[in-house]
Write a structure and sequence with these properties.
Length: about 230
């Protein structure tokens, strides 16, 4: 019997690649997405496509409303920064950080993993996010993993510990794209943009669009998402 894994699937480039890696490693994958009050729903459309294309055993979308708290350009009426320099992007915690988002998402993933008797969870955090997003750092992931093994029946009584796998954590965006391309990820149906245009086209100017474009350029590949929206 193949082992099970819960994979956090936002519909973005990184999470789609993490799902592909989990499949390559021999897991039956259970994809988990969130409608959390974010600015747009196009990422959930992409998550659904990825779950289907990559043959997830199940794809659950959970509704929570982080707009009740706000505090982020993704969950409040705050402008998304555009056209920032690479230096500015890599400095400080940006306003697009959603307070405690990964902590919340991993908590839901842990609950589902325990019900499924799955010892593994996958999340697509990577090195480019260390400087800006505190809940993408490896020390946070390891801390949450310790908590998972202290706070669950599976962690206390189970034969194997709960494990949070971060297969992209040491990779650049270009490396992630090369890896996903090798694993046949259809990047035309992923969205990285924080503030997409009507119809779902990427804005091209937010930090995430800039990092995505840089990654494809460094990988020597065209972004199929951009081609999808060409006239």
């Amino acid at each position: 019997m193949r082992p099970k894994a819960v994979v956090l699937l936002s519909g973005g480039l990184d999470s789609a690649t993490a799902l592909a890696v989990a499949r390559e490693r021999g897991f039956d994958c259970y994809a988990l997405s969130f409608r959390y009050g974010q600015r747009h729903a196009v990422e959930l459309d992409c998550a659904a496509v990825q779950a289907q294309q990559q043959q997830a055993c199940d794809h659950v979308i959970i509704d929570i409303d982080l707009r009740l708290f706000g505090g982020s350009a993704l969950t409040a009426d705050i402008d998304v920064p555009k056209d920032r320099s690479q230096h500015d992007i890599s400095t400080g915690i940006p306003i697009t950080y959603v307070p405690a988002r990964n902590t919340i998402f991993l908590s839901y993933a842990l609950a589902w993993a325990e019900v499924l008797a799955a010892q593994n969870m996958f999340i697509g955090v990577n090195v480019l996010d260390y400087s800006g997003y505190p809940d993408c750092r490896p020390e946070f992931i390891r801390s949450f993993e310790r908590t998972a093994n202290l706070a669950t029946r599976a962690g206390v009584e189970g034969a194997d510990p709960m494990c949070i796998q971060t297969p992209l954590i040491d990779l650049s965006k270009a490396d992630i794209i090369r890896l996903g391309t090798r694993l046949d990820v259809d990047y035309a149906f992923t969205i990285s943009c924080y503030d997409p245009l009507e119809g779902g086209a990427p804005c091209g100017g937010c930090d995430s669009c800039v990092l995505r474009a840089k990654g494809f350029a460094e990988a020597g590949l065209d972004d199929p998402l951009v081609r999808r929206f060409l006239p």
